[in-house]
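Figure 3 (text version): structure tokens given as input.
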């Protein structure tokens, strides 16, 4: 089986450090190793999953087409979580497979993409609604102490948000290969993933134990990467 490997990371930093990229390579390597694949090309894209303008993906698909190869990605979301984008990709006649669910057919992929897209929108909507409700109750949003400290450092509250988000993204990227390994072993529910993380001695970003809700937050951050 001839394949073209396609990897995507969301930031230049992830691309340089290998965070996320190494886990993807491991997943594709494991998939190919068990099938005796002949990798005829490898392409790495540094782009957000929200952006459908992918020059490296276009090159990967072209090579796959001219060589009769199959495009292989580590996870479906490395292609896109946009239903219309995946539908157009399928209609183009491109042959592709996700290493984390190699037996999935076109209908399965379409449904999973639709679910991921709907969940992303739902999370955004719930966050906005919760913030609006809190504001209506007179709650002062943000961390006043943290904001004051940053203000004294001439950084402002925007820097606090960026720093927190960056830290959370780094933490999620560090755990990516562990989560991939756990889910690859058939442990897929929020409760059982939390139990396995605790069994392995992995702590949350705040140093605590894992619960279904903290696992859900971690997986949502992986989807958004």
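Below: residues designed for each position.
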């Amino acid at each position: 089986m001839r394949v073209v490997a396609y990897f995507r990371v969301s930031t230049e930093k992830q691309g340089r450090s290998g965070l996320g990229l190494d886990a993807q390579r491991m997943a594709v390597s494991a998939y190919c190793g068990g099938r005796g694949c002949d990798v005829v090309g490898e392409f790495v894209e540094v782009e957000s999953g929200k952006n459908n303008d992918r020059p490296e993906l276009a090159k990967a698909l072209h090579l796959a087409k001219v060589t009769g190869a199959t495009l292989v990605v580590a996870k479906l979301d490395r292609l896109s979580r946009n239903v219309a984008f995946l539908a157009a990709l399928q209609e183009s006649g491109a042959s592709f497979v996700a290493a984390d669910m190699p037996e999935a057919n076109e209908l399965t992929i379409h449904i999973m993409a639709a679910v991921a897209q709907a969940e992303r929108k739902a999370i955004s909507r719930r966050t906005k609604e919760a913030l609006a409700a809190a504001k209506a109750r007179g709650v002062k949003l943000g961390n006043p102490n943290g904001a004051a400290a940053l203000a004294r450092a001439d950084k402002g509250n925007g820097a606090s948000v960026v720093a927190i988000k960056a830290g959370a993204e780094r933490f999620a990227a560090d755990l990516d290969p562990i989560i991939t390994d756990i889910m690859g072993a058939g442990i897929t529910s929020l409760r059982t993933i939390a139990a396995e993380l605790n069994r392995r001695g992995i702590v949350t970003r705040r140093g605590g134990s894992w619960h279904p809700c903290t696992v859900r937050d971690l997986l949502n951050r992986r989807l958004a990467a």
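Strands lie at 2-9, 38-46, 70-73, 96-98.
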